[in-house]
Write a structure and sequence with these properties.
The chain has about 230 residues and is an alpha+beta fold. Helices cover about 25% and strands about 35% of the residues. It contains 6 helices and 14 strands. The longest helix has 19 residues.
């Protein structure tokens, strides 16, 4: 996918600062890694950029290809100066944007929780799953909305996996918001086609709150809300 993104650009145009390029490692040492950039010459990753990209580059060797972002066209030694970390992050954000547009399901492992929701990572990018975007069956049904009790309920998900959609993202602020509810909503809409408005169903009360009761019904275990006004 990353290669496809690069191939969209015109290969004949001259390199520019901020552009992502693909190069082949021709030499690597403790202080620098040199890349063959074809007709553009030789690129170098060194100093702070090398330290920040340790995880990206640690398993690569001479002959391997790597994506990097141009940060200087002609440094003091005459090389094109590159950043592997910036390139990796930019390409990941582009991939995440495509996943959002395609409404592609992704699976994440919950790493932490706070009173506002759940914390995780997608392709190494920190992400947040707000309480409001949890599926009905996972929503913390806490009487009175006590923050301490909500947090206790959310902590039960730490270490577990969840299927979600990307709800919102902004690379400039590194904001990545996920939604379990949006994914479940797609599935529920399919299940609800089997039912008709006005049809009587029998279900199990799963929780009582100050604003109504939650009811789970059908073999699909659809969960809905009976508002206080309808009780």
């Amino acid at each position: 996918m990353m290669k496809e993104l690069l191939e969209k650009d015109n290969s004949l145009k001259p390199p520019k600062i901020g552009e992502i390029v693909e190069g082949t490692i021709v030499e690597r040492g403790r202080a620098a890694i040199f890349l063959d950039l074809g007709k553009w010459g030789t690129g170098i990753i060194y100093g702070k950029e090398l330290q920040e990209a340790k995880e990206v580059l640690k398993d690569l060797d001479i002959g391997d290809k790597v994506f990097a972002k141009i940060i200087d066209l002609d440094n003091e030694e005459g090389y094109i100066e590159l950043s592997a970390k910036d390139a990796r992050e930019e390409l990941i954000w582009q991939e995440l944007k495509e996943k959002k547009e395609k409404k592609e399901k992704i699976t994440v492992k919950i790493l932490g929780a706070n009173k506002g929701g759940l914390l995780t990572k997608v392709s190494g990018i920190l992400a947040f799953l707000p309480v409001s975007q949890l599926a009905p069956e996972n929503y913390p049904k806490v009487e009175g909305g006590d923050p301490a009790k909500i947090l206790k309920e959310l902590q039960k998900f730490v270490g577990k996996e969840m299927a979600v959609l990307i709800f919102d993202l902004d690379p400039s602020t590194k904001k990545l918001i996920l939604s379990e509810k949006a994914l479940k909503s797609k599935e529920i809409q399919e299940h609800l086609k089997k039912y008709k408005e006005g049809e009587v169903v029998e279900g199990e009360i799963t929780a009582l709150t100050s604003f109504g009761a939650f009811l789970r019904f059908g073999k699909e275990k659809i969960e809905g809300l009976i508002p206080l006004s309808e009780i």
